[in-house]
Amino acid sequence: MHFPILSVIVFTPVSAALLILLYKPDQKKAVRITALVTAGLVLLLSTIVYFSYDKAVAGYQFVEKYSWMPFLGISLHFGVDGLSAPLLLLTGIVMLTGVMISWGIEDRPREFFTFLFFLASGVLGVFASLDLFMLFFFYEIAVFPMYLLISIWGWVKTREYAAMKLTLYLFIGSVIALVGALAMYWQSGLHTFDMLVLERANFPATFQNVWFPFVFVGFAVLGGLFPFHNWSPDGHVAAPTAVSMFHAGVLMKLGAFAALRVGIMLLPEGAKTWQWVIMGLALVNIVYGALIASVQTDFKYVIGFSSVSHMGLVMLGFATLTREGLTGAGVQMFSHGVMTALFFAAVGMVYDRAHTRDIPKLGGMVGPLPMVAVGVIIASLVSMGMPGFSGFIAEFPIFMGVWKTQWVVAVVAAVSIVITASYVLLVVRRVFFGKMPAELEGHIRPINTFDKISLVLLCTIMVGLGLFPSLMVPWIQTGVQHVLSLLGGA
Amino acid sequence: MNFLNNHLLILILFFPTLAALVVFCLPKDNQRVIRWTAFSASLVPLVLTVILWALFKPAKPGFQFEEQYTWYAAIHSSFHLGVDGLSLTMVLLTTLLTPLALLASFNVTDRLKAYMMLFLFLETGMLGVFMAIDLLIFFVFWEIGLIPMYFLINQWGSEKGERELWKGVKVQARNYASLKFILYTMGGSLGLLLAIQMLGVLFQTYDLQTLYLKWNSLNGSLLGFPVATVKAVAFWAFVIAFAVKVPVWPFHTWLPDAHTEAPTAGSMILAGVMLKLGAYGFLRLVLPLYPIESQHYAGALAFLAVMAIIFGAFAAYGQKDFKRLVAYSSVNHMGFVLLGIAAAAKVGFSCTDAALNLSKNIALNGAVLQMFNHGLSAAGMFFLVGVLYERTHTRNLDDFGGLFPLVPIYGGILIFTSMASLGLPGLNGFVSEFLVVRGSWPALTGYTAVAMLGLLFTGAYILKGLKQVLHGPLNEHWAHGEHTLTEINTREILVMAPLMALILSIGIYPAWILDVVNKAVLMLFH
Amino acid sequence: MSSIRSILPEILLLALAIIVLILDPFLGEARRRLVLGWVTAGGLLAIFAVCLLAGRPGTPLFVYGGMLRFDWLAFLFELFFLFSAAISALFFMDIERVNRRAEAYLLLLAATLGMSLMAASADLIMLYLAIETTSIPLYLLGGFLTQDEKSTESGFKYLLFGALTTTVMLYGFSLIYGFTGTTSLYALNLHFNQFDALSVGVFFLVLAGLAFKVSLFPFQFWAPDVYEGAPTPVAGFLSTASKAAGFVVILRLFVVAFPAISANWTTVLAVLAALTMTVGNLIALTQKNIKRLLAYSSIAHAGYAMIGVVAFSQLGASSTIFYLIAYILTNLAAFGIVAAFGRVAGSDEISAYRGLSRRNSTLALGMLVSFLSLAGMPPFGGFVAKVLVFSAAIQNGYIWLAVVGVLNSIVGLYYYLNVLKVVYLYRMEGEDEEHHPVVLSRPYVISLTLLMIGIVLVGVLFAPWFNLAQRAALNLF
Lengths: 490, 526, 477
Prior knowledge:
Chain B is mostly helical. Helix content of chain B is about 75%, strand content about 5%.
């Protein structure tokens, strides 16, 4: 009986949350330190899981199964494969950097970290879950803390609206998917929610064609698929920094990942039927997202729409149903997660000091914040898909996959690269270089150690993965291999 | 010694990056240490390249000093390096110009560490393009090199000058130039990117030598279209990407701004090496992958080349800004490179006529040698403009006049370098231009004739430039008071000296380099 | 002996009531509230424990001439009622003009006794008797605060509405007897084979009374006014135990007596359930008073629970029973919190809850837990409950109903979140929260803690509870 490392990873944040609730409201330091230790622990464990994963054996590893409700076939079933292990790692990274960035929250930090860790447990649970019921259980747990986190600690102007819109959208998406999942459960006649069994259930083609959109789109709402992406930019902007990092960095990946796990892997025939629709929508995401981002004047909105655009690439990769496309999508989930976490951290740092995110009102930030500038430059290069950074490692195979499927889409999507480059370079130049407006002079204090650690960690990962793709791609490939076998070796 | 032999290329390639990381760790206040560390570090790749040159066997076919490391196995791309005569020449050019550029930058004080680091990263980027024999690696380094240059122009470019965009919105000239540079090049490379993706998907490999064989033996239909159509489209995609870089008229409009606004050392590298990346792309990728299409469209390419030569010359003649004049001269000179390539393409690689084949080889030799030569002379010219600018803070030709007596040594060097640029026999420019014209004449007679006209105007604008700066009545402004023009100093002479030595040696005795180039050219297209 | 065991809860309740009655004159003013409250609550919990240990049924059997049926269905629900009453008794302890009146506790015990009989009834006459025994004390409890206009109105409305519908139901019962010659529920299934005029008539007449009890559309109009006017713990008791009692009767009556025409009445119930949910949720959107909001929310929840009944399968019945478990815990908690806060703030308007998270963060957390459970969010009981009823619906082909339920959940989430928004985000006027803490008395602390633990337990470790529900449902089929 091996150490139940996945259960520990999943339940550590929520246990920490309950512990934090026992502190008194004024014990802020204790709350923060507990949070930091917990996040560090989760990162450490997820790193161990990642590097201990045996790629030669592949398949699901670190499997744990506890019978939960035998009558309906529900079990607490955890396991990772090559696709989910990087995502667990990503969650750990974003948790740690998020906690470090949130060190300065003064308004009820106790409740803040409690809700944040509930969110974290939910996310980790979904990535590790191999039971469909439990997947939903953890998925929903990840939805409601967002409402509280955004509406209470978010940007005063739009937080209530954005929080409610986000929560309702995500809830709608998840219940639509739930209906689909329940239909799958009954249709299979196997009386089990175990996804490993359901993978081999062989649902009839008509059933799959009807229910695939429910399941895929229901989850893809969280992934920001057009035209259900509308919650995302507002949600990103209104949320406090750490929550934005989580939201764009991890939560959107949750949606895409669940769409893959439940939609594509359990209903492969349905996936093949609907492939072109998904591809079309993803293409709209990519191009439309980039275009809208380029006309924004609020720094955070630029990044919010850029997230919509980049998640479109993930969906595009999925929709190709090819080895390269899926591999690229897997890498993109990780790469974009890290990149966007850095972007939002940087935006937060600038906003905390300048108290504005309006691009025309910013400038010359490189002087007082040189590390932030370098970090943002590196993240921008990732965003453009510049070779040498993780973004290229992700985007290139996706395009290869698209070539295999429909070359026209590749050509159209490629245009977005230049659009992205143009707006990202312009925004970076306007915010960080040039002349600092007079009213900001002297008000920009330097960043603290935690901020520096976060920036360095995130940059190292982006550059490291860009230079040495073998640090992640082999893992993803094993997972993709399994997906392809379910698709019939496409 | 064995280690060195087996890893020479990767050492040359990544030493500048390591040096940059070392510079990062230096304290930022001690500028002397930073400068000398960077400069001495940049000499190491040069020494290694000379060793490489010595160990290189020109008569051996194919690539030498090959090294291959696993990189992105999932999409069948490996980190595959190798040199032949063509790339070796370029590597030498790069590793030679970089230390000179750093030496030229000794007067930079603003954020010196970042500046030096960017140059070193840039060197790695350019070397990577020349050394890569995996198509994906080629592309990776192709794109990567843009970033340091973007920031160099952006942050250390000339501070004066504004450009007006639409609706009265004004931007700083260097911002405009740098963004135009990067977006133009990235946009031009989009087609290249797409074509590379397609090739990767088709053949499940990016190894250049394998691709040469497989791509050329492909027939039937592809993506629903006949192979010939797809190849034609891909051909133009490749051509456009490289044409932007060379730059070929009409894709050259980014160049005058970028060259003019870049800092002196930046212009040296930009004109000296980065333009060659484009021409190298033509030689390494376009000609071998698309021999039939190149032959088919050789006329069009020649037309563009001649336009570059002529319009470049005319434009240079009309400039009032010294640096812009030199920038347009680059367009003019690179036109000859493309002319040579076009001529070779026209003849094709399965021609049986011995005379035509000879001309083809001569044209290619000329093109490659022109790449090297122009690198030397352009770098020199930009540096000299920079020397003058540093003292006078103006580049306007009207502001100068009769400076020769004030700065005779500078004047001498300027005349020497200008003559190289002009193509004076005895200096390197003549050799390469002669070879190109001689090689192109049989295949593209008409175009060559018109190009000669361009040569005439080359002389015109160079002499005009010289006249306005050095000759004529002395502009008293620079003779007295605080504006007194000081002579070129030792460091600056040291920057120019290697260039001048090479210019002269190639002009008088080109065999040492032509031998390597010639053998490479002969083997390349058979 | 088993016949004594079968009515053990009722006997013990009667005993407790007598004890309370006897104690009452001997207590001084000061200790009245404490003694009455603790005795009632403690007594109820003791009865709960005793019944749990000693009163468990074996195979179902009819006792007292077929009047009652001693089976798990009845037993389980009796336990529910005892628990709800105990909690409500604890809640009573803080309501002025209720807590010192032994009558309030007695009425509570009487109603509980009636409900226990309702759960076990196997005969029409017994059923009617039990319903009346339940209802009349509840009418009185509703109007208990005689000085309060709203309370009086509430009691009166409840009485009138209830009386009307139960009369209609009685008429239905009499028709059944007239046409079948028997009053035993378990003998009726032979007689109702097709959905003819008689069946239709009887069905709707009976439904009137029962729909009133569970506040199913179109008999839900009384609920908001009654809940708003009645003392808050009474509203809590009404919305949970009384509703559950109604459900057990519906389950037993319709499943046992009319199985042959199930296809017809399930459709009717499905439509009514859909309407109930929708009406409840939509009107809740506009409410500014939290008791009214919870009232409409309770109406909607009756609709959700009804989905399980509509499913007409073992899973369906189990899921309804499970839903009621989760719902009882959650709704009691919600009303309890409202009662606790209302006592301090003196207002039941939602806007009065501003800044609650700073005035008492634990209470706010409790509100979070109960409201999110109402919304159907994990890791709380409401989530599992909803998934189970939807699951049962899909299994039996009622996909449209599941979709309606799902859409309604979304609407529900919206107004529950709005309340939480007020609690967590908005601040009091003057932003003076530290000086206006909300303090809870001991009975409330104990009861709310118990409920919170229960909600989370049912939401996380749900297998044992579902097994219980299954055992009960087994007795139906």
